[in-house]
């Protein structure tokens, strides 16, 4: 089992991550997203539906918890990993 917080921070610092529902949906539609992580209370039906070719990992906490896990001073309902960098986040 990997440490999700450490994996997200590693992906954000050494790779490329976009935050937010709209940015995650754009990354999926353009085919750039490798994996998407959504909060339990994510409002996007598109991200929760699974009607796309991108792996979606559902984080059990709220968007406030996910924002804190990402080290952001705001809530994060969804984030998309474009480039994993040195993280092992794709093994979720």
Question: What's a concise summary of this model?
Answer:
This protein has 92 residues and is of the alpha+beta class. The protein has four helices and four strands. The protein has helices at residues 4-14, 21-30, 45-49, 63-70; strands at residues 16-19, 35-38, 55-58, 78-83.
Descriptive overview:
- This protein is α+β, with helices and mostly antiparallel strands.
- 37% of the residues lie in helices and 20% in strands.
- It has four helices and four strands.
- The protein has helices spanning 4-14, 21-30, 45-49, 63-70, and strands at residues 16-19, 35-38, 55-58, 78-83.
- It has a four-stranded mixed beta sheet, sandwiched between helices.
- Strand 2, helix 3 and strand 3 form a beta-alpha-beta unit.
- The chain is globular.
- The model has no long low-confidence stretch (mean pLDDT 95).
Low-confidence regions: none
- Helix percentage range: 25-40%
Shape: globular
Strand content: 15-25%
Compressed to H and E, one letter per element, the order equals: HEHEHEHE
Between the first and last Cα atoms, what is the distance in angstroms?
Answer: 8 Å
The Cα radius of gyration reads 12 Å
The total count of helices amounts to 4
């Amino acid at each position: 089992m990997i440490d999700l917080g450490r994996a997200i921070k590693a992906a954000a610092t050494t790779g490329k991550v976009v935050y937010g529902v709209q940015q995650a949906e754009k990354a999926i539609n353009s085919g750039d997203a490798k994996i998407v992580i959504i909060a339990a209370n994510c409002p996007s039906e598109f991200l929760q539906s699974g009607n796309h070719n991108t792996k979606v990992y559902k984080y059990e906490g709220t968007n406030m918890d996910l924002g804190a896990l990402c080290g952001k001073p705001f809530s994060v309902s969804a984030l998309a990993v474009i480039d994993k960098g040195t993280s092992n986040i794709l093994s979720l």
